[in-house]
Amino acid sequence: MIRLDRKSGFTLIELVMVIVILGILSAIAIPKFADLTTQAKISAGKGGLGAIRSAVAIEYAKSATSGTVAFPSAITTDLFADGLIPKNALNNSTSVGAVTVAPSASATSADGWWYISASGRAGAYSDGTQDTSTW
Length: 135
Prior knowledge:
Layout: H1 12-65, E1 96-98, E2 113-116, E3 121-124
Parallel strand pairs: 1-2
Antiparallel strand pairs: 2-3
């Protein structure tokens, strides 16, 4: 016969130990997660910049085959197959600012990207905390 009057459950000590272990794990995991978020933004920014540079190179090659070698005068949505300029994950902007000299590596702007039409150079604006000079 099965007895149903026996009480079972967790003791207070067991519950406190579980809470302590979860606290220790979260104290270790949260800083790692914050670093992964930053690394993901940097990687997404590098990918977007690669797409912009590829679009510039394709337009340059098209102009070279037609006999007039020139970089595009501006980065526009027409350069991209999906009609969208990639978003800079560091500052969440898709706009491209025309510049004559490359900004400093941690320069910030409302624009997501910068472009020098004379040389075809393109780069990313930073959020102020990241160095984008090596992208």
